[in-house]
UniProtKB/TrEMBL annotation:
InterPro entries: Aminotrans_II_pyridoxalP_BS (IPR001917), Aminotransferase_I/II_large (IPR004839), HisP_aminotrans (IPR005861), HistidinolP_aminotransfase (IPR050106), PyrdxlP-dep_Trfase (IPR015424), PyrdxlP-dep_Trfase_major (IPR015421), PyrdxlP-dep_Trfase_small (IPR015422). Residues 53-386 form the Aminotransferase class I/classII large domain. Signal peptide: none annotated. PROSITE patterns: AA_TRANSFER_CLASS_2. This is Histidinol-phosphate aminotransferase.
Length: 391
């Protein structure tokens, strides 16, 4: 316990300078906020068990890694570490604009799409405003809302026994939850942690119901991984007709570059310009800019990783299903799986065997675990450990 002494030299009463006290000094939104839960302490586990003894399937990383061209680009950048990166990220934005057939002024780069989602909250919502998202929607949506001091309206998802898309976004209910106070709607397609998705017609119908004044965010972190024949529509073709719509993408998943922290937003040039006002000037570092540009040039590697993921996703889902476990449909690189009332115990027993999955209690799905689809070998090791634990 120490005594707070003001600048005027007077004591202001006794209190510990602890988290509770500093929280009381924080803005209203931050007072109610809890920090993002990244799951297990993997760094400590790697030290304790050795990386070779771990099967890390908790963070939806890409086990095939990035394009070799991305690694080479980073090595080339090592000559320039004393320089600030290009504050505009112009080369990467040009490459992204060409890939997606949009104008360079429609693209904003972020230190991961996480940063962009937080910034959207800060820019467009504040105290008294509402932000709408789905239950079981990506955790950062709630964080971005609370950090901005806005009020979250969480709309019930489709029921777990829905015939078409269990636990999926209920777009009609989300549209109905939009009010005169709503500033932002966060959607994820496909969504994490459910793996669920919705189609282009459903999205078009939704957008027709939502007033222009409301900014609609489509988080498309897993878009590259959706099967070509699945109706998991990207919002991209709808941007022209709906300037209030934007989408976010990331290099963390299909491109295998989670360690670099690069995401991007595509939206109306005016929206990007307003977001720029709050962007930290050098938010994406030089090696990351170069590596992502190189990764975009290697479509073959991207297609290899996505094809292997799709193949392993189907195989793993079938294997888990054969064990009597309920596996939710997914167009991502993870599966949401129901383990019933013994879930916490099963998860702990798997961790004891070096198999790391993501508990879902924080999402209100305590009977589920989220399992990243690994390589053939990782999935085999997961299933072997699971068979021991379930026996
Ligand atoms: C992984 C993920 C992201 C990506 O986050 P980054 O900050 O770009 O690594 C964004 N949205 C969802 C739904 C995700 O699952």
């Amino acid at each position: 316990m120490s005594q707070a002494v003001g600048r005027d030299g007077h004591a202001h009463g006794e209190h510990a300078f602890d988290e509770a006290w500093f929280a009381s000094r924080a803005s209203a939104g931050v007072q109610r906020l809890r920090a993002y839960d990244p799951g297990h302490d993997l760094v400590a586990m790697r030290k304790r068990l050795g990386e070779a003894n771990l099967v890390e399937l908790g963070s939806n990383e890409n086990p095939y890694g990035p394009s070799p061209a991305a690694r080479d680009a980073i090595v080339a950048q090592l000559q320039a570490l004393h320089r600030y990166p290009d504050p505009l990220g112009a080369d990467l934005k040009r490459a992204l604009a060409a890939k997606h057939g949009v104008d360079i002024a429609q693209i904003l780069l972020g230190n991961g799409s996480h940063e962009l989602l937080m910034q959207l909250g800060q820019v467009f919502a504040g105290p008294g405003d509402e932000v709408v998202c789905s239950r079981y929607g990506f955790a950062v949506f709630a964080l971005a809302t609370q950090a901005a001091g806005a009020t979250l309206r969480m709309v019930d998802a489709l029921p777990g026994d829905d015939a078409t898309m269990p636990l999926g976004h209920d777009l009609d209910a989300i549209a109905k939850a939009v009010s005169a106070r709503t500033k932002l709607v966060f959607l994820a397609n496909p969504n994490n942690p459910t793996g669920t998705w919705f189609g282009r017609q459903a999205l078009a119908t939704f957008l027709a119901q939502v007033p222009d004044e409301v900014i609609v965010v489509m988080d498309e972190a897993y878009a590259e991984m959706a099967d070509a024949d699945a109706d998991a529509a990207s919002a991209l073709p709808l941007l022209g007709a709906h300037p209030n719509l934007l989408l976010t993408r990331t290099f963390s998943k299909a491109y295998g570059l989670a360690g670099l922290r690069v995401g991007y937003l595509i939206g109306a040039p005016g929206l990007v310009a307003v977001m720029e006002r709050l962007r930290e000037s050098f938010n994406v570092n030089g090696p990351a800019l170069a590596a992502c540009e190189a990764a975009l040039g290697d479509e073959e590697h991207l297609h290899m990783a996505c094809a292997r993921n799709a193949e392993q996703r189907a195989a793993l889902a079938a294997q888990l299903g054969q064990r009597g476990l309920r596996v939710y449909p997914s167009q991502t690189n993870f599966l949401l799986v129901e383990f019933g009332p013994r879930t916490a115990r099963i998860e702990a027993d798997l961790v004891a065997r070096g198999v790391v999955l993501r508990p879902m209690g924080g999402y209100g799905l305590p009977h589920c675990l989220r399992i990243t689809v690994g390589t053939v070998d990782e999935n085999r090791r997961l299933l072997a450990a699971l068979d021991e634990v379930l026996a």
